[in-house]
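To the structural biology subgroup,

Please find below the input and predicted structure for Serine O-acetyltransferase, which we are adding to the shared reference set this quarter. The sequence is reproduced verbatim from the submission form. If anyone notices a discrepancy with their own records, reply to this email rather than editing the shared folder directly, so we keep one authoritative version.
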Amino acid sequence: MKNTKVHSFLELLNKTHKAEWEASPSIQGASAWLSDLIEFLFPNNRLNRYSTYEGILKKNQIDLENMLLSYLDPKDYDIEHSVTTFYDDLETIYNNLRRDAIKIFESDPAATSVNEVVVTYPGFYAIAVYRIANKLSLLGIPVLPRVLTELAHGKTGIDIHPNATIGVPFFIDHGTGIVIGSTAVIGNNVSIYQGVTLGALQVSKQLSNIKRHPTVEDNVIIYARTTILGGNTVIGRDSIIGGSVFLTRSVKAYSNVFNTHQLRIDSKEQLV
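Predicted structure (tokenized):
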């Protein structure tokens, strides 16, 4: 005998799944496309012959176009223009990432080479995915940019919204627990350490079109576990923000901001 309640649920499930499937790119497809693109830009496992470069790039371009066609209506989005523009700007993305990698190498005494940064540093990987996703977001592509940055978030623990604005070069050290909100603006030559949050003072759907996250100007260093909140909060250029600082107001250029809590250590060891 047919269970009417279960049948009704299955129909609802099918209808919802169909609507969501049609409005979203394949997670597996997005991951494969991203991996192929990063491997093309920064080959690790093998060095492609120069004669194959054009073919590899063309395949990646076709994969992106097919992925967009799988969930976007060409009547609403100029997919061909978006794909062409993205790959026209790929050289700029690559050059910016090289500058990011050099900045990380020059800033981290533990780094032995730029290649080590590119191959092993989670901060560089998160920045690379962000720059790719940000370009797609600027082209008006929905959903896919967020899928890409969430793939990086899951892999590195670094959460950068694709709509954030981040200058060049950008240095992330260690990185785990970093959160950079969608309306954050970060200038050039900025360094951020693990556990830093550039967030909103409050979370409300009514604030969707308002700048909610801080602005960090050029040459700023923000050390570990610091939280900076608010769309009107500006960290002035060439400032240093120490570890475990909580800020909800602006800081003038060339400022040093440190937490003033005192640490006391009592040793029971007896001197001989």
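Summary notes: The two ends are 88 Å apart (CA to CA). The CA atoms of residues 146 and 162 lie 6 Å apart.

Regards,
Lab coordination
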